[in-house]
Amino acid sequence: MGDNKSPSGSPKENPDNDSDANPLAKDDSSLETIVRKFQDSMSLKKHKFWETQPVGQFKEVGDSSLPEGPIEPPTPLSEVKQEPYNLPTAYEWTTCDMDSEETCLEVYNLLKNNYVEDDENMFRFNYSKEFLRWALRPPSYFRSWHIGVCAKSSKKLVAFITGVPARIRVRDEVVRMAEINFLCVHKKLRSKRLAPVMIKEVTRRVHLENIWQAAYTAGVVLPTPITTCQYWHRSLNPKKLIDVGFSRLGARMTMSRTIKLYKLPDSPVTPGFRKMELRDVPAVTRLLRNYLSQFVVAPDFDEDDVEHWLLPSENVVDSYLVESPETHEITDFCSFYTLPSSILGNQTYSTLKAAYSYYNVSTKTPLLQLMNDALIVAKQKDYDVFNALDVMQNESFLKELKFGPGDGQLHYYLYNYRIRRELKPSELGLVLL
What we know:
The protein is α+β, with helices and mostly antiparallel strands. It folds into two domains: 27-225, Aminopeptidase (3-Layer(aba) Sandwich); 228-409 and 419-427, 3-Layer(aba) Sandwich (Aminopeptidase), CATH 3.40.630. The protein is 23% helix and 24% strand.
């Protein structure tokens, strides 16, 4: 179980990446192709660690005789290793209490300075403390799954990995899983091979709660993605995005034409479009459960989950819905979360404010119109860019609403659960933070 996705904006907008012009571009992302390219480029470099883990292996790709479901059966709880794995002598485990302001600040600083950067080292994720508390404390979370590594001498936090519990439906099976995230090792300790020990340790602690499966994402290819998604970006503040090198001025485009191209109305156009409130939780839960039932892999949300993950929280998550002015029925819903990036080495700007599309459900309002309203409120709130993966039905609005494909891909993985064939992004109903 691991995680190191491309950052924030990082899969930067790539105007040369015109998939219309190249009809083969789409097919290129099939798992076999990715695996082949990957094996060629790594001259069959072995994933020493992952080959020992219960995950789909590259050599199994395309073998439809393998059964779907758990790869290894659960071990009796009495046989799960009771004591933590050994760390190099200078380091020790610590459990990070995210309720503590001091610990939260320490985790925030470790991630802010050492977490995922884009390939050109121009942007680095900058998760806020409020965001980390939200991401790591869902209903019935386990504090023991918020794992730090400290230097024994200074007690400074030098590495971090987390899990949170989730119920994820795979076809007709609802499976208790851990969502693994925020694997981060201090830049100076990258040679210490801490990550595999940390992954084994979080796995051990998850097993102690009698949970045997997990979900995670990464920006790199490991054995073996269940699907590979692409980030798309919609400029909201094109001048700033171009100034900081997130996007480039298109060929034959001037700055003023670009600003005009991305201009949005001042306020949402859908009658009855408003912010979600606590009283809306039951209606939103019904809408969302009904919508997510069509996907092969999706979360199994109840009202407590919806209240935690989707009730608006300033600079963390924004949710809007459409309430019919006539019947007062809640018919549509959209949401996005806030994940800024630090802009590295720019004199004028230090932060890129990015919104990430989360869960969106359209029943009466066309999805295109609903998402255009989401862009309008994001612009009103001073976001610079709106990012979306091509999961669920997102593909239907991306080009039309002037999103451009990024140059980053996000691979989704399940631990100790086999899916017989690679999914299309549109068959995935799961967004991991």
